[in-house]
Every structure is written in structure tokens, then in C-alpha cells.
Amino acid sequence: MLDISPYQLVIASLLVIFFKQIVGKVGKEVLEENGWRLYTTVGQRLGDAKLKELGNRRAELAKIDRERKSISAQDEYARWTKLNRRFDKLSGETEKLAESQKDRKAQLGRALGVALFATTSLPIWVFRIWFRKAVLFYFPAGTLPYALEYVLALPFVPTGGVGLTVWMFACNSVISSLLFMVCFPFQASVPPPARPTNEKEDKTAPTETSKPATPAS
Amino acid sequence: MSTELSAEEKKRILRERRQAKMSGGKASSRLNTILSQGSSVNSEATSVLDKTTDETKETQKISPTVEEGLNAESNDVFGLVDRSALSNKQSSPVAEKLDNNAEDMDQLFKQILSQNSQENGSNDQNDVLSSLMRNLLDPNQANTAAPGADSKSSEKEDEYERQLVEYKKYQQSKVKFIFLVLRYLAIFINFTYHYLTSEGDSFKSSSYAHFRLNAPATIQKSFITYFITFETVILGTYFVLLSRSEALKGVTESGIILKGLSLVSLVAPKVEHYRPLITSLLNYAELLWMLIADVSLIVVIFGVISGF
């Protein structure tokens, strides 16, 4: 049934593990939020009435907010108050509409979870069960010491070859290291902290301001 | 009204008579008489009133109302004493005495705890507990914290310690990043050199087993020789940094194993002797994981080129 070549298995497992690591790095919650945003955008274009109304109200809310921030409350108080009242009313209505879409959002979250499972965890389990004794590739002779080749061949593969277990472990290790190498330069640097000074010492030290004023002669 | 007064007068007269009997060292004999009533065994108890210790001297200094109350209580075998009236009289001086005793005990406890905490380098009993909790949560904070009596300065110190831990973690990540780049570069350069200079398919991996029979011995062995040399130099440098640098050391000690050791050492202090050994083992374990990660890279590279 699953008649694929060893090299296809190598690449397929590498891509699945890479995708799984990316999902783990990004986070499932972030993916759900973005998925929902995409769904609402596409849903509006496809003509979903409620989503369209929600989108229109959000756009109007953003427009009112921009207008309100662009004018001064002191100079144009009446207009600002009117805009503020409209904004509050509209934000209340938008929230109610968004609440009604919660069930749909939860359904989308569940669907996304199933999709992620089907594309990341399920293939790995299928490969591990179906191809557990497959030799993916052999090292050229003499490249690595015999002891190392023996360990890398565990548990089912002849010495000199690499099986799926070791291959998946190696892929996980390398991909996580590469992700670390790519992400670390974008991480905010932490400066060395400044040791706090003793407030009591500062208070007891004489200062110019604390000296009593000399009486005028 | 007249009956109440006469009843009160009767009580007062009874009290005075009993007091007269108690004075002059007769309290013990009266006590033994009461205790021996109805039994064949004669008791030889000594009444508290007859004791010639400091406590009795203090009791003699008590105000008359208190003394009266104490005597009345001790004499009231049949429950004739009006306890409510007594308690009203007794409440303030006796309560004061009890409060004073309680305050003395509190001061005594505070002195004991402050002595203990001063031996540990702190001046506040709360700091003993807070240093314990800090030791559990993060050994770095316990070692470097200087808890002060002022709450504001201790908050600033805590904030400083937190920032210091964050800084050390960032420094460790930075060092790991640098060494990771070095290791991967060394492996890629080594592999690329041998792949380009090898004859035919001698340095290629394949899903076919017969590829293993075609390789001349020299090239493959030099690959592993260079690999071991680079790994020894790079990992050796990292180990020296790990064992000597204060920044890297502090973060290693915040790991879960050493935190567990700190918890266990609270119950069994002898376990603390093994801390340097366990720290060394953890450093070696980190080196081993780095070596395994580098071998994994070799496996992945050979795996990817196996299809070409």
C-alpha cells in the first residue's frame, strides 16, 4: 500500500518534522487566531452575511476611532462627544456580534487541531509503524568508526545503515538547532543590570541643599 | 436589696476568714485536708501560696483585688464565689499580667530567632524564611541576595536579582549560539571538502548496500579525524568557559536537578557535599548532548545527499 522509496521516505519525514517544529515554535494559539482572521476575511468575500456585517462594523469602528483621535476634544468638544458616543455604541454592537461568532470560532479551532494532527503527528506514527525496519541509507564504508555505525543502526537496521528511529531523532535535533540559530539574532538583547545603591547611605551623605541657610548678617 | 447586701457581706466575711487561715503558712495543711477528704491516702502537696520562690513573691506584689480573686477561686470548692464579679475585678490587672507574660514570650522568641538569623548573616526573622524560599526557587538568589530590614531596598535587590538571572540566561544563550555556529561551520566545511575531493562515489551515501564496497580507506578516515579534532577543540573551549565563567555557572545551577538538590539538602544537609560533583556531571552531560547534536548533523547531511 505505502510503496515509497527510501529517499522519498527520508524527504517526507524531514519535511513533516520540520513542519511540526515550526508549528511548535509559532504556537497553536497564534495559528488559531490567524486562521480565524483569514476565515473571516475569506468569509466576507464569499458573502457570509454575519461575517460581512462584522467586517463592516469593524471597519466603521476603525474609521470613527481614527477621526476621533485626529480632532482635539477641547477645540471641537461637541463633535468629539458625538464621535465618542457613536464609537461606544458601535463597539458594544460589534462585541455582541463577535460573541455570537464564538461557536464558529471554536469549531474552526477544532478543525485546525485535527488538521495539524493529520499533517504532523499522524504521518510520524504511520512511518514508525509501517517502515520501522526500512533502511533509509548506508554510510560509505570507513567514514565513521564501527562502534558509532553500530549505535546509529539501532534498533532494527544492519550496521552501517540508518533506520527511521535514528533518522527522526537526528532531524529533530538538527532542525531545532537551526531554528535556534535563525531566531536568536532577532531576540532582544538583555543589558547587564545596575546594582541598586543603598538609599540610607545616600540620605546620610551631606548635600548642599540639606545644609542650613546661614542667617543674613 | 438587703438580702443581696447581706449575701455579699456574708461572702466578704467568708473570704476574710479564709484569708486569715491561708496566711501564716497554713495553706498547705488546708489543701491537704481538702485533698484527703474521703480517701485513705494522705496527700502531702504544697500549696502555691506557701511556696517561697520568686513566683510567690510576685504574687504577693499583685494588687489586693487580684489576690482576693485568686484566693477566692482556690477556696471556692463548692462554687459559692461570684465569678462574674471577680472577673470584672480581675480582668484588667490579671489580663495585664498575662499580656505582659505574652509580650515577654514574644520578645524571647524574637531574640532567639534574631540570634539564629544573625548567625546566618541576616537581621530579620522574616529574612530567614524568605532566604529559604529564595534558595528553593533559585539558588543564585540565595547566594547573592542580601536581605535588608528595609522593604524597599529588599524589593530593589529582588528586582536586581531577577534582572541578573535574565542577563545570565541571555549570556548563556549567546555563548551557545556562537559555539553552535562554530560547530556547524566546522562540520559543513569538513564535509564539503571531503565530498568535493573524494574520488567517484567513495564519499557518498546510498540506499544500496553495495556503495559501501567502493570506497578507498584514506579519505573517509580523514573525515572522522578532522571531525574529532574540531570537536575536541571547540567542546574543550566551551567546557572551560562553562566551568569558570560566573555567568554560565549561575544558569547551570538554576536547573531542575540542582534545585531538587537544594530542596533535599534542607532535610539532609550532607547531600550538599555532592553539589560540585553533580555540577561537573551536568557540565559533561551538556558536552555529550552537543556531541550527539553534531553527529546528528552528519547523519542528516548524508541522508539528504543519499538521493543524488
UniProtKB/TrEMBL annotation, chain A:
Keyword Ribosomal protein: no
Stretches the record annotates as Disordered: 192-217
Record protein name field: Golgi to ER traffic protein 1
PANTHER family documented for this protein: GUIDED ENTRY OF TAIL-ANCHORED PROTEINS FACTOR 1, TAIL-ANCHORED PROTEIN INSERTION RECEPTOR WRB
One Gene Ontology term from the biological process aspect of the record: vesicle-mediated transport
Assembly and interaction partners: Component of the Golgi to ER traffic (GET) complex, which is composed of GET1, GET2 and GET3. Within the complex, GET1 and GET2 form a heterotetramer which is stabilized by phosphatidylinositol binding and which binds to the GET3 homodimer.
Membrane topology note: Multi-pass membrane protein
Molecular function (Gene Ontology), one example: protein-membrane adaptor activity
Cytoplasmic compartment spans: 179-217
Spans within the Lumenal topological domain: 1-9
Annotated signal peptide: 1-24
Function comment: Required for the post-translational delivery of tail-anchored (TA) proteins to the endoplasmic reticulum. Together with GET2, acts as a membrane receptor for soluble GET3, which recognizes and selectively binds the transmembrane domain of TA proteins in the cytosol. The GET complex cooperates with the HDEL receptor ERD2 to mediate the ATP-dependent retrieval of resident ER proteins that contain a C-terminal H-D-E-L retention signal from the Golgi to the ER.
One cellular-component annotation, GO: endoplasmic reticulum membrane
UniProt record similarity statement: Belongs to the WRB/GET1 family.
Superkingdom classification of source: Eukaryota
The species this protein was found in: Pichia sorbitophila (strain ATCC MYA-4447 / BCRC 22081 / CBS 7064 / NBRC 10061 / NRRL Y-12695) (Hybrid yeast)
Bilayer-spanning residue ranges: 111-131, 137-157, 164-188
Location(s) in or outside the cell: Endoplasmic reticulum membrane; Golgi apparatus membrane
Keyword list, A-Z: Coiled coil, Endoplasmic reticulum, ER-Golgi transport, Golgi apparatus, Membrane, Signal, Transmembrane, Transmembrane helix, Transport
TrEMBL record, chain B:
Topology class, membrane: Multi-pass membrane protein
Keyword set, alphabetical order: Endoplasmic reticulum, ER-Golgi transport, Golgi apparatus, Membrane, Transmembrane, Transmembrane helix, Transport
Any one annotated GO CC term: Golgi membrane
Name of a matching Pfam family: GET2
Biological processes per GO annotation: protein insertion into ER membrane; retrograde vesicle-mediated transport, Golgi to endoplasmic reticulum
Chain intervals with Basic and acidic residues compositional bias: 51-60
HAMAP family in the record: Get2
This protein's name: Golgi to ER traffic protein 2
Gene that produces this protein: Piso0_002959
